[in-house]
Write a structure and sequence with these properties.
The radius of gyration is 17 Å and the shape is globular. It is of the alpha/beta class and about 270 residues long. About 45% of the residues lie in helices and about 15% in strands.
Length: about 270
């Protein structure tokens, strides 16, 4: 059992839901990322989605687009962020790490080289936004040979037929994009999310994480009542942006947001 499967199994056994923060590696400077990862775990993060900065993050709103710009300006690359994961693993061999980003940097590095290095440093899965399962047939075996879960997205507009395909192709968990539009763009509708998650469950046995629109403790609590995981990104990345001039305070600022979400999720778990 890999780290992701073990984490979801442990959470299910204890009646808790996964808190899955997203941050962009190297934002605002490369030396912030490692202490930030450690602080998020201490604050209650169960799985971490670590963004691979890209110059054209088309699924992301302005908050994460600017994070990518700051990261790239600081010299972050796929290779350097993988080195950061290796350093993280020196003190944490339990928390799953999923790399989230776009295909171009992975393709530039080479699928085999990328997958092998991910396995070496302790990455557990990849979520490549612009690599749907229909186009992943040639590269999926490379990732799987290196024990990397392939996490795929399900949208509000995804048909039942395509949900079936995604449910069979994916591993680790499914990421339900709860809003039409880009990250951080709107407020989610908990009733609609519940209905869509119930539909997705008919097509997969994988855990379901819900992201896009998780802005605060209350929205995290509401989503945790229907999903297996709560993915929060823009709300954390905004904290990073607000404190970019004083990066030493960033780990604690982000941790404070996560602690409030963790507490709300755990207190509301029976809802």
């Amino acid at each position: 059992m890999n780290r992701i499967a073990k984490r979801f199994a442990d959470l299910a056994a204890s009646g808790r839901k996964a808190l899955i923060p997203y941050v962009t590696a190297g934002d605002p400077t490369p030396d912030v990322t490692l202490p930030l990862l450690q602080a998020m775990v201490a604050a209650g993060a169960d799985i971490i989605e670590l963004g691979m900065p890209f110059s054209d993050p088309m699924a992301d709103g302005p908050v994460i687009q600017l994070a990518c710009e700051r990261s790239l300006a600081g010299g972050t690359s796929v290779r350097s962020l993988l080195d950061t994961v290796a350093n993280f693993r020196k003190t944490d061999d339990d928390t799953p790490i999923v790399l989230m980003g776009y295909l171009n940097p992975v393709e530039a590095m080479g699928y085999e080289v990328f997958a092998q290095r991910c396995a070496e440093v302790g990455v557990d899965g990849v979520l490549i936004v612009d690599l749907p399962p229909e186009e992943a047939l040639d590269v999926a075996p490379t990732f799987r040979e290196h024990n990397l879960d392939l996490v795929f997205l399900v949208a509000p507009t995804t048909t039942d037929e395509r949900m079936e395909l995604i449910g069979k192709a994916g591993s680790g968990y499914l990421y339900y994009v709860s809003l039409k539009g880009v990250t951080g763009a709107a407020t989610l509708d908990p009733v609609e999310v519940r209905g869509r998650v119930e539909t997705i469950r008919k097509h997969t046995k994988l855990p379901i994480g819900v992201g896009f629109g998780i802005k605060d403790a209350e929205s995290a609590r509401l989503v945790s009542q229907v999903a297996d995981g709560v993915v929060v990104g823009s709300a954390l990345v905004q904290q990073i942006a607000d404190n970019a001039a004083n990066p030493v305070v960033i780990p604690e600022k982000v941790a404070a947001v996560l602690r409030s979400m963790r507490e709300a999720m755990d207190n509301g778990k029976a809802g």
